Every structure is written in structure tokens, then in C-alpha cells.
Amino acid sequence: MEAIDTLVHRVSALFARLGGAMIVLIAVGVSVDVVTRNLLGRTILNSYEFSTYLFAISISFGMSYTALCGAHIRVDVLVTKLPTPVRRGLDFLSFLALAALAVLFAYLSVKLAWASTSRGVTSSSALAFPQGLPQSVWALGFAIFALTGILLTVRHAAHLLRGRGVDADNLGRFGQDQEVAEAVAEARHRET
């Protein structure tokens, strides 16, 4: 199970970095189009169309890492006041709901990409870009997210069944100490 965890963490981190790079690429493309529109009177990259594809892909690519690191939004005001067994049960239900939603996203995005590819659907712009290509990459991000959601749910249940409630409590959460330790480790890695 540890090997699977390590692989999922590495793939998720890679996808998150790729998603971040896509956001930078969007910013560069839009900036180039703004400058060329003002200087030449026309855009040269057609960044609007590609930025929509890249933005959707970057979101799907970042979802897995966000879930693993606990960077998702949690409203724990009431949950922290509940008895520990109830809180752990609600945490399990939230992991189960996350996995179900992620699987639904993956299924529907793969279905859409397959339909677009098999029908030869293209964008309505002058580029007539094949829609199946960005949709397939988008679906890949959701597939990784679905696998991560399932892994988190199974991992949480395993911790609870083995009586390791503290490990279950820390799953998918990023405490301040953990965040600082990761930032320091990453900074040290950059120096070498």
C-alpha cells in the first residue's frame, strides 16, 4: 500500500506542477495577445481559445494534489466540537463523497472526450481545433483525481478498522507544522 501511496503522491505532485505551468502559459499567451493587439492591431496566438482548454485542464490536474495535501476548503467549526467517533464517521463520509464525485467527474469527462473524438467534433472558431484532444487530457486529470479519492477513502477506512484513529484524522489534512516542514524541505532541495 505504501508503494501505491508514493506513486499517487508523485503523480499528483507532477500533475499539480503541470497545472501550475499551464496557468503561467495562459498568462504569457494572454499577455502576448494583448501586446500584439495594441501594437499590430491583431492577436497572433488566439490565446482565448487555448487558455480555456488549459484552464480546465489545470483545474483537473490540481484536484488530486489538493485532496492529498488537505488544501481543499474545510469548514470545521461544528465538526471539531463533535465527539471523536462522530467526527471520524463524518470524515469517512466526506472521503466517500469525494471519491464518488471524483469517479463521476472521471466517468463523464471520459464519456465526453470519447464522444467528441468519435464524432470528430471541432471548436466553432476559425482554428476548428479537435475538441477530443483537450477533453482527453482534462479527463486524465479527473481519472487521477478519482484514483486519489478512492485511495483516500480506502486508506481512511483501513486506519479506522485497525484502530489508528489519529492516522485517520491526519489523512488529507495539512497542519501548519507539516506545511512548514514541506516548505523547508523543498527550499533545501532547490539549494542543492
TrEMBL record:
Single GO MF annotation: transmembrane transporter activity
Record localization: Cell inner membrane
Cross-referenced InterPro entries: DctQ (IPR055348), TRAP_DctQ (IPR007387)
Gene Ontology BP terms: C4-dicarboxylate transport
Residue stretches making up the Tripartite ATP-independent periplasmic transporters DctQ component domain: 26-156
GO cellular component, one term: plasma membrane
Keyword vocabulary terms for this entry: Cell inner membrane, Cell membrane, Membrane, Transmembrane, Transmembrane helix, Transport
Bilayer topology: Multi-pass membrane protein
Transmembrane residue ranges: 12-32, 52-71, 92-115, 135-154
Subunit structure as annotated in this protein's UniProt entry: The complex comprises the extracytoplasmic solute receptor protein and the two transmembrane proteins.
Membership in a protein family: Belongs to the TRAP transporter small permease family.
Chain's role: Part of the tripartite ATP-independent periplasmic (TRAP) transport system.
Protein name: TRAP transporter small permease protein
Organism: Aquibium carbonis
